Amino acid sequence: MPRSHRHQVPNGVFHVTSRGNRRQKIFLDPDDHLRFLYLLDELTRRRGWRGFGYCLMPNHYHLVFETPAADLSAGMQWLNGRFAQAFNGFHSFDGHVFQGRFHSVLVESDWHLLELSRYLALNPVRAGLCVDPGDWKWSSYAAIAGLERARPFLASHRVLKHFGGTPSAARARFEAFVADAPTRMAA
Questions:
Q1: What is the rounded CA–CA span in Å between residue 136 and residue 121?
Q2: Going by C-beta distance under 8 Å and a sequence separation of 6 or more, which residues neighbour residue 42?
Q3: Number of domains observed in the structure of the chain
Q4: Which of 83, 90, 124, 152: CA 20 to 30 A from 39?
Q5: Residue 186: inside a domain
Q6: Range of the domain at 90
Q7: Do the domain assignments include residue 152?
Q8: CATH number for the domain including 158?
């Protein structure tokens, strides 16, 4: 029986996740993270996608992207395929890197986007990988909060516009929004 098609719409915003095969790590060292982020930069340039958030965890990743065309599946196939080739090549592995196809959910409201931004920021904290979301180098939190320069694909203004005022006031309100999250939730 053929697999069902992914939900794809033009100008859709999607929360995309993909996990390592057998839940194994897909980021073994900082270079793996950097290679993945480089591929995200290239993907967004090629397809005109805009990123609103990301979080790279040891064995999976989360991305929030807007796709101007209905090309989510093609873009994700390119991203996961390129990363798997690089990962296997650099670590002298072979075989599957990712567990099945990516998972995606259409982001249907601004509130959903804001909650995703908070979830992504707190994912490494809740997993015990860091104490403060600004300490995790591999997420969009620090860039959105103005603690570091944003990657080229990250359109942090899309999240910050919901916090109003000047850019510095919006960043402070965003940090407070993340800090006000319910305490311990599953990562």
A1: 9
A2: none
A3: 1
A4: 124
A5: no
A6: 12-179
A7: yes
A8: 3.30.70.1290
